[in-house]
Predict the structure.
Amino acid sequence: MSLLAIEGVTRRFGGLIAVNNVSFSVEAGEILSVIGPNGAGKSTLFKLIAGFVKPTAGHILLDGKRIDGLRPHAIAARGLVRTFQETTVFREMTALENVTVAHHLRRRASIAAELLATPSVRAEQKEFLSDSREILARLGLAGLENELARNLPHGHLRALGIAMALAVRPRVILLDEPFTGMNSEETERAVEIVRTIRAGGVTVVLVEHDMGAVMRISDRIVVLNFGTLIASGTPAAIQQDETVIDAYLGRADEIAAL
Amino acid sequence: MGLIRLPLAPVSFALFAAVMLLAVPLALAGQGYWLTVLTTAALLAFGSLGVWLTFSIGRINIAQGAFALIGGYVVAILGTRYHVSFWLALPLAVLVSMLVATLVGWPILRLRGVYFAMITLSLTEVASLAFLNGGGFTAGASGITSIPRPALLSSSLAIYIASALLLLAGIVIAWRFAVSPAGAVFRSLRQGEELAASLGIDIARYRLLAFVASSGMGGAAGAMFAAFQQNIFPTSYTVNDSVNFMLYCFLGGLQSVAGPVVGAFLLVIAFQLLSAIQKYQALLYGIFMIAAMLFLPNGLMSLPRVLAARRRRDE
């Protein structure tokens, strides 16, 4: 059984079909990329999987259990966490606070116990703090723990977003354009981070424009065009696929990248 | 500066507690007028702490007057009709306020920004109208008078002490909350609800928690007021009062627990000292508000920081 299964998922917005009868599955431990021209429905697909948008038709299964219809926090609790495009973090908190808040699902104490700061609560918080520091260090943010998030440069913000998602201890992580806007050196570091995440036993699904990075990092690729799945397979197979090349026609730069 | 300047330093709290519980009673024991003013300030500050709590999740709450009304009427009706002791009626008033907040909050907390502010503002108006048209149950426009004085609280000094204790307890709880993980979750909601949800935070539940706690505090303040004024009318709390609860928070500052307390005491006492110009109260409040937003957007509590920054710049 696949870890994550998308089964005939459709999403309409009024007369527009953003995602049209899309089916594919993600196996545990793989890195799967979703690519497609602008407006292909990649972002909507992400929102559907993470529960921010409900499908008009079709099912989404995690471990064989339906998660479509659940609210985002409930989906996160089942082990599927998304990151956001750009730089969505809690801007008025420090890097450390950002990651510590992301430990929410592991909180065991009641709010009353937290108010009293009982010994068990203090032990719990200490554990979250040290775990948070460790995650920040893993993502190259050591030394920036007490920096307010809004003062961090863009590259670091994206790393912080991933750090927060990892703090939830997901089994599947959805990365929304993790390499966009990075120079080749930063991309290289980000690719390495994604590999580390997978090495840690987390399945990775990512949406990305940077073809070079996608081709290098992915085990499999799913291609969307106008909301429809037009191809899926290994990077080598996708590069040879006629439909995919057609879909990208007129986008010489991206074909060159392929 | 962005991060809430949490610990209203324990020292300043101890000082404030000493003034409230020792200095004031010693200095003003015989002066009912000033004790009443300070009782009012303490209770309004307590209600504002609740509004501050809803600010911390990023919602502008102009409904506190409605919950003060509800709390007041619960005490009034139970005390006059059913001869229920105030000490039982008080927790019941808080409970009823929280129950109403749960029912009302669930749907409206989906709204953000000015939409939430507007609907809470109309809640205050709705509550007032509901009590006005409550027939025999609420006694309509004539209100409920001769509410019995609570046992143990027969003097203005006793009522003042009770109010001060309530406020001090409220400050401690709000402060403990702000530094607790749940407080961090509240602040995360203000900065990004979708992000919070993606991390597994049940945002609807936490929003409701903030609003219900806030409303419970509004209900408690209203119940205390009703008991010490011994009457309540549908017009006891109007939209103006709800706005003022919010104004105290703005003036004092949203960054620290001390903000609403400082704001409430300053404005309440200032307007007693300037009693000659009380008819211009709304105008002056408005000017204060605009001035605060222009020059001290983070409230009076940020003044030391602002001054320090200026000094550094000048050097």
Remarks:
- The CA atoms of residues 141 and 271 of chain B lie 28 Å apart.
- The interface with chain A takes residues 2-3, 173, 176-177, 180-182, 184-185, 187-188, 191-192, 194-204, 209 of chain B (CB under 8 Å).
- The mean pLDDT of chain B is 88.
- DSSP finds 13 helices and no strands in chain B.
